[in-house]
Structures are given as C-alpha cells and as structure tokens.
Amino acid sequence: MGDDNTGPQLMEACRSGDLVLVQSLLEADADVTYSNPDDGVTPLMIAAEGGHIPVITVLLEAGAPWNAQDKDGHTAGEYATSSGNRETLPVLLDWAVTAELLLSSISDGSDAKIVGEKKRKTAESESYLGQKLRYVDGKLLDEDNEAVMMGWEAPLMVHHADIICASGGGAGGGCGDVLNVGFGLGIIDEEIQKRNPRSHTIIEAHPDVYARMLELGWDKKPGVKILFGKWQDVVGKLEDHSLDGIFWDTYAEYYEDMRIWHKELPRLLRPNGVYTFFNGLAPDNLFFHLVYGEIARRELNALGFSVKYDAVPIDASSEEIWEGVANRYWNFTVYFVPTCVLIEQKKEEITREETTTE
Fold first, then answer.
1. How do residues 116-128 score in pLDDT, each as one tens digit?
2. Cβ atoms within 10 Å of 128's Cβ, excluding its own
3. CATH class of the domain defined by 125-357
4. pLDDT, greater one: 189 or 256
5. 3-state secondary structure (DSSP) of residue 143
6. What angle do CA 320, 78, 151 make, to 5 degrees?
C-alpha cells in the first residue's frame, strides 16, 4: 500500500472529480478500499455523491467494493441518489448486478445468502418447520417472535392477487388456474377466492399453518387443493403447463432457494402465464434491494419471462405495527411489485416436449 496519507488524498481527488489524480494515486498503490475512520465514508461514496462517473468506473475497476457501507449503513448507491445524480445510479447498479451474477456463477450460488436473503432473517428451513408458530393479533410469529407474516402486508396481497388472476385463463377471461406457495395468514388466498379462480392450489410446509388451514375449512372450499409439504418435495405433483398464475412467498429460505424455484416456472406455467413474488429481497438497504431485484429480473429474463416492477406506496413505519415482533423485515416506504410473464419457453424445454411426443 501507499503511505498513510494516500487514503485521504484519494478521497479529495474523488471529491473534485480529478480523474488524472485518482489514477495516479491508484498507480502509487493508494488503498481503494480506504474508509474514513470517523464516518466510514469511502472514495467510491464521495465520487458517487459528486456524480463523477469516470472516477467511479476507475475505482470499481481497481477493486472498490460496491457494497461497502458507511457507519449509518449507506452505500455508494444511496450517496448517488441523495445528491440527485440520476446518471450515476445505473452505473453502480449495473456493476453490482454483474459482480453478483459472476460471483454466483463461480460459487454455484452458495454466497447468495450474504446479501440476498429472500425475506426474513431467521433460522434455516428445517429448524423453522420444527418450531411452534403462533397467530397473534394479525401476526404469525415463530418461537423467537420473528414475524412469518403480518397484517400490514394485506394491501400488497391485493396487488399480487390481481396480477396472478389477470392472465384470463378462466371462463369469460376470469381468474384461471392459480398456485400460491406459502399460506401464512391466508391473505392472498382470500383475495384469490374473491376473484373466483377456476382452480386454486396452495403449497404449505409448516404443520401449524396447515392445521390452521384445516381449522378454517380451506380443504373444503370448492376448487381448492392443498399440497402439504416443502415445495421441493411436492412440486413434482403439479402437471406441466397447468397453471395460469403463481405467487411465491416462503419463509426461512434464501435467494438461492428462490433461484431453484424459478427454474420450475417454465414447466408449470402455460404460455403467457404470470408469476409474482413477495419482493422482500435484501430488505434492510434500498440499494441492495434494487440490486437483487435487477438480478431476479435478469435471471427470469433468461428463463423466458418479461419482468416489470410497479412502485406501490406502503407505510409500515408505525411502532404499533411491530409491537411484539423481534425484528422488522420491512424498512421502505415503497414496494416494488413484480409482474413476470412467460413469453417464451427455453429451447431445452421445447426440445424435451418434442422428444416426448415423437
């Protein structure tokens, strides 16, 4: 490394956007990972705040960590957006997404849990399934008072139900054959029922939630089929291209589990079938949230889906909402609702079908 003063010098060069000086300092072995000991601010954050895109590019190429956080938990992405530099954020976002996808390809996805926990911070799946759950005041809590699902999500579930029931697979263009993975409080399933689906399948893995479903009579509702078990164990019972809409909202799983699930979708959905999921990706930091949303978009694109996110205002900030809950799992004022439409089958899927019919 360079001398102890190169870090602060690099910071000042980034602040002024002096590309030549930044390059000179890096060539002199200045520490591109340097952070201010008082506030944790890095050269990349300073450059992002100033909108100095050439400097940002040089720093990233030199190894500046895109996901470094200052002492308040802010990344270079937040510094870019807070200063109104709209051209800067896409540069950081594209770099971060590309880096994470490359890391995933090298590590076979084993590092996806670091930033990309799917929904909640909790134990692994098997541990969760062995816990006793409680339904309390519009919440579903585990033994550690972590929330599996909460009532404040209800407005979001209305949007998700609209999406999976809008494919027009049913009679008269109504709600067709739909699947929900993860019952929880049953909010989205109630919304689906309001839309008169042709068929309504629910996968639920937790025995306490399953017992609750039976208690409420879900097994007796016309057109409803319950598959009790982990989705990994029961998804094979679903016929190929039998669904018009799918919603996904599991608990105690990581982004890598979601990746595996996504590979099932082209088999399960009919052409123009619609998929959506609870978008709780990286819920503690908005930039990380955007990064993992874009990763999901690109990976679903590769599976033959068009993907869009619609911003929906949501306010879950009240302390009363989180009373009795160990940890908040939502910290934003906007929710990005994903709509994923199957527009083409993967070539290997088409080949498999042709081989089967010959």
1. 344 444 446 778 9
2. 22
3. alpha beta
4. 189
5. coil
6. 25
The letter for the amino acid at 35 is S
Cα–Cα distance list, 306 to 33, 74, 224, 301 (Å): 37, 31, 29, 6
- What is the dotted CATH code of the domain comprising 6-107? 1.25.40.20
Which pLDDT tens digit goes with each residue over 295-307?
A: 999 999 999 999 9
| Segments of the chain assigned to CATH 1.25.40.20 | 6-107
**CATH 3.40.50.150 region(s) of the chain?**
125-357
The pLDDT tens digits of the residues spanning 119-154 come to: 444 446 778 999 999 999 999 999 999 999 999 999
Global confidence as pTM: 0.89
Task: Strands of 65-213 (E only): list them.
Answer: 134-136, 139-141, 147-150, 177-181, 199-204
Q: Which residue has the higher pLDDT, 96 or 111?
A: 96
Does residue 107 have a pLDDT over 70? no
Q: 261: number of CA atoms within 13 Å, CB side? A: 25
Residues in CB range of 198: below 8 A, 6 or more apart: 169, 170, 171, 174, 175, 176, 177, 223, 244
**Whether 45 contacts 7, CB under 8 Å:** no
What is the spatial distance between Cα 42 and Cα 32, in angstroms, rounded to a whole number? 8
- Angle between helix axes 53-61 and 88-107 (nearest 10 degrees) is 20
The two tokens of residue 351 are: 């080949």
DSSP letters, 243-286, are: EEEEEE--SS-BHHHHHHHHTTHHHHEEEEEEEEE---SSTT-H
Find out whether 178 and 244 touch, Cβ atoms under 8 Å. Answer: yes
Amino acid sitting at position 125: S
pLDDT > 90 fraction of the chain, expressed in percent and rounded: 83
